[in-house]
Write a structure and sequence with these properties.
Helix content: 40-55%
Structural class: alpha/beta
CATH topology of the largest domain: Aspartate Aminotransferase, domain 2
Bound molecules: 4'-deoxy-4'-aminopyridoxal-5'-phosphate
CATH class of the largest domain: Alpha Beta
Number of helices: 14
Largest sheet: 7 strands, mixed
Strand order of the largest sheet: 4-10-9-8-7-5-6
Strand content: 15-25%
Distance between the termini: 27 Å
Radius of gyration: 22 Å
CATH superfamily of the largest domain: Type I PLP-dependent aspartate aminotransferase-like (Major domain)
CATH architecture of the largest domain: 3-Layer(aba) Sandwich
């Protein structure tokens, strides 16, 4: 690994995008903001903020039910955003794109509508040890309701999935596999193609939690051949309160609605109700139209830069940060997978992560500290918490230098 991996020209080019993000000009405690909490929520560029505002100022009304012009504009904007997501994921049809509040709601939808009616005592749900709570608890709830068993595939000390163990745990009782595409606590990129091939060889459908993947890697659900894919807008430069569940059409068709209400029905009477077609069957109530429009604008923005170029730039940033942080006495990086995306989790001897987070905040540096909604990962590594710096393409080597200096100073003072 070399420290000079980011070419100055790439650094300069990507630094120019900072001007697209008004919030990056904020000062925190009198210091220029260094925003390294992108894994929790990334920031929105003007293009997204403008699209949300334009929607609110010129297009907004309730969707689908109105004959008046604004309602039709809102419907066109909302359905246009769905088509934009379809292209982004390379799904076959927009019927496979369901808008949700985020990754959490998307996974709960699959747990309640796909898994719960199908599972019974002795059936198994296979996940991994490095999941976010959003990809653990919904399955525990289904297991509790049905008598099914949650089976957890182990990871190793690098934070990589133990693929032979995963293979051995896939059994004739496995009814669904659900794993992260990228771990939010460790940055591990999981071997998603192998997971799909292994599961499909046993006719087991696969869900990927793509919350940490879509901002950093090009995702093509047809190439991946997964059955479900979930992600959130707010981690990929879009708004909060909007996310996506991709589902293979034939499987979605076979699933009952999970929430009832307006928009998900064709007819309602007390002798029986008929349900709407995909994707509306899974979108009860008034959706987040402005959020969907903002998400589509975020996708356009990412496309203009190019996810492949973003991935390459962020990879270099990650290597630079890894090398510089590793050199700090007493600092241990948690999660050293060979394939990693865009974040460094670490502990610092003698300084609790929460204290470190507070010290860095005084320097204007925003990192996340805690268990990152992945308590089993913390348990596995025997730490109560880590500090996590998670990068976006608008971060710079100079910002990483500031992080490193502040962490080293904290170690010198308190460690
Ligand atoms: N899965 C992963 C891997 C995540 O990082 C997160 C957010 N931290 C979630 C799921 C949940 O996403 P949301 O809160 O947007 O539903």
């Amino acid at each position: 690994m070399s420290a000079a991996v980011v070419s100055p020209s790439a650094d300069q080019e990507f630094a120019r995008y900072r001007a697209d993000f008004p919030i990056l000009a904020e000062r925190i405690h009198g210091k220029p903001l260094v925003y390294l909490d992108n894994g929790a929520s990334s920031q929105r560029p003007t293009a997204v903020l403008d699209a949300e505002r334009r929607y609110a100022e010129h297009l907004h009304a309730n969707v689908h039910r109105g004959v008046h012009t604004l309602s039709q504009r809102a419907t066109d904007a909302y359905e246009g955003a769905r088509e934009r997501v379809r292209v982004f994921l390379n799904a076959r049809t927009a019927r496979e794109i369901i808008f949700t509040r985020g990754t959490t709601e998307a996974i709960n939808l699959v747990a309640q509508s796909y898994a719960r009616p199908r599972l019974g005592p002795g059936d198994e749900i296979l996940i991994t040890w490095l999941e976010h709570h959003a990809n653990i608890v919904p399955w525990q709830m289904v297991a509790e309701a049905t008598g099914a068993r949650l089976v957890v595939a182990p990871i190793d000390r690098r934070g990589e999935l133990d693929l032979p163990a995963f293979t051995a745990l896939l059994s004739e009782r496995t009814r669904i596999v659900a794993t992260a595409h990228v771990s939010n606590a460790l940055g591990t990129v999981l071997p998603v193609r192998e997971i799909v091939a292994l599961a499909h060889a046993r006719n087991v459908p696969v869900l990927f939690d793509g919350a940490q993947a879509v901002p950093h890697l090009k995702v093509d659900v047809r190439a991946l051949d997964c059955d479900f894919y979930a992600f959130s807008g707010h981690k990929m430069y879009g708004p909060t309160g909007i996310g996506v569940l991709y589902g293979r059409e034939a499987i979605l068709e076979s699933m009952p609605p999970w929430q009832g209400g307006g928009d998900m029905i064709l007819t309602v009477s007390f002798s029986g109700t008929t349900y709407n077609a995909l994707p509306h069957k899974f979108e009860a109530g008034t959706p987040n139209m402005g959020g969907a429009v903002g998400l589509a604008a975020a996708i356009d923005y990412l496309d203009r830069i190019g996810l492949a170029r973003i991935a390459a730039f962020e990879h270099d940033l990650l290597e630079y940060a890894t090398e510089r942080l590793s050199a700090i006495d007493g600092l241990t990086i948690i999660g050293t997978a060979r394939a990693k995306a865009s974040l460094v989790s670490f502990t610092l001897a003698g300084v609790h992560p929460h204290d470190l987070g507070t010290i860095l905040d005084q320097e204007g540096i925003a990192i996340r500290t805690g268990h990152h909604c992945a308590m089993p990962v913390m348990e596995f590594f025997g730490v109560p918490a880590t500090a996590r710096a998670s990068f976006a393409f608008y971060n710079t080597r100079a910002e990483i230098d500031r992080l490193v200096e502040a962490v080293a100073a904290a170690r010198a003072l308190f460690g």
